[in-house]
Amino acid sequence: MKITDIRLGMISVPLRVPFKTALRSVNSVEDVVVEIHTDSGAIGYGEAPPTGVITGDTTGAIIGAVNDHVKKALIGRDVDDFEDLMIALQGCILKNASAKAAVDMALWDLYGQLYHIPVYKLMGGARKSIVTDITISVNDPDEMARDAQNAIERGYDCLKVKVGKEPEKDIARLSAIRQAVPAKTCIRIDANQGWTAKEAVRILNGMQERGLDIEFVEQPVIAHDFDGLKYVTEHSYVPVLADESVFSPADALKIMQMGAADLVNIKLMKCGGLYNALKIASAAEVYGVECMIGCMLEAKISVNAAVHLACAKKIITKIDLDGPMLCSEDPILGGAAFDEKQITVSDEPGLGIKGIEAGKIRYIPV
What we know:
The protein is α/β, with parallel strands linked by helices. It has two domains: 3-116 and 357-363, Enolase-like, domain 1, CATH 3.30.390.10; 121-355, TIM Barrel, CATH 3.20.20.120. It is built from 13 helices and 17 strands. The protein has helices spanning 59-74, 82-91, 97-114, 119-123, 141-153, 167-180, 197-209, 226-235, 249-258, 268-271, 274-287, 300-312, 323-326; strands at 3-20, 25-38, 43-48, 129-131, 134-136, 158-162, 186-190, 214-218, 240-242, 263-266, 291-294, 316-320, 332-334, 337-339, 342-344, 353-356, 362-363. Helix 2 packs antiparallel against helix 3 (97-114), helix 6 runs parallel beside helix 7 (197-209) and helix 9 packs parallel to helix 11. 51% of the residues are buried.
């Protein structure tokens, strides 16, 4: 099975409601789709969201990386030479993790198709289904409480609440949500780098003292501040999850060695795909650090790849793969079944993606 072409396209999927964090506000998913074509007729699918404010990867950068660098490294090569393909992909251009992630998952898709096995079984096959949380965007306390109630009515029992935009309002936001949902509801929060280390400790300890019962906080300080992250981990009543601080297996390893966080978030768009994500999971197994699997604001192709990883590895104990459920429609054919909080992986070969609905993708001319 030889690679004959790599095609790029754009999809646009509207959201149910605007997605708001401490860093951005978004109304729709606008992603680059990668199709790797082969001489056997098999097609591998990948996807990358342009999330410049987090990854630095814009639409133009993703397209340029694939067209100008990745194609030269991969076209004409055999899918069965999988390790060499992965090394070539990671080495053909520096950084550009989102572009690499999209191509990486398309290669895994083809490799699974070649051997007629789903990717999650190739990587470990720990389980067939997982349960995700759902994100509550930053808004006024009353609106966030209503969004939380709506999520509970849809069957969710774990909420990931965005905070960090206005530190002094965050306790009011969490209080309103905690009062609006059943006491047993799991609440985890994501500050998206919104606080300083000392500010984070003060706010988090204040939340717990008020009985808000926070499961953990995601990325309370700016990404490069590993020492600040460690300070929060050591002084906060709330466990700390490293997210934007983890852009590579090396980052994850350093955080684990420092004891800078209690948990580590794996995101394909930050680490460059499944190949590197498996390295983070392996390091976590060695250090005994539980992982979360997360996503950016992505449609189903890339989140589906993350589902396969989550179903492969038991060290991944926290699931934040709600991207497709935040969308108002799903133009992607095949892949995992998303039934609100319950996600079931497909047993089709590869990643199980069959294509995209007619008229829903705009191909990019070379």
